[in-house]
User: What shape does this take?
Amino acid sequence: MSSKLRIISGTLGSRRIKTSKNANLKPTPEKLREKIFSWLKPDIENSECLDLFAGSGSLGIEAISNGAKSCTFIEQNPSLYKNLKDNISSLNVVDKSKLHRTRAEDFVRRFKEKGFNIIFFDPPYARDYYGDFLCKVIDKVSLSGTIIYVEQSAHDKVLKNQNLKMLKTSKTGDALGSIFTVNK
Assistant: This one.
């Protein structure tokens, strides 16, 4: 079973992408995505992005729509990965996309390239990815000055990490979205 999400802005604005009905999938609300990308507008042009828990790919596709040079999408669930692949193909952004069907932890552990300018970190709320694993993400796949968008449950305390400086934060429904910059 699937539903549709709308791309908010940029060259793909108002186009729709498929998303699965899945208990572990909680797409970023439209209102919050609109806010995120208005915050990121000055930094997104020609950036190399990572959508670490991609799901439908809405955050990474929104980044490409707003001028990102490329986005690497990580999704382990086979049906979500198929939807993601279909979305990227139907929007004709295959040339700006790299897809990996693997666990986020495995991708980060094996990563050997230079790092990303922007990282979308939107893991399942029920799992504790905000401690040790987020530290590994900062260490292995970010650069000094990388912007990290972190989404967590609005019921949780705002994330604190010694290597992250908070720039902005906003709550919408059950989601708390925060933009940080990496200080390495």
Observations:
- The mean pLDDT is 91.
- Strands lie at 2-6, 16-20, 48-51, 70-74, 97-100, 116-121, 142-153, 164-172, 175-182.
- The helical segments are 30-44, 58-65, 78-90, 104-110, 132-141.
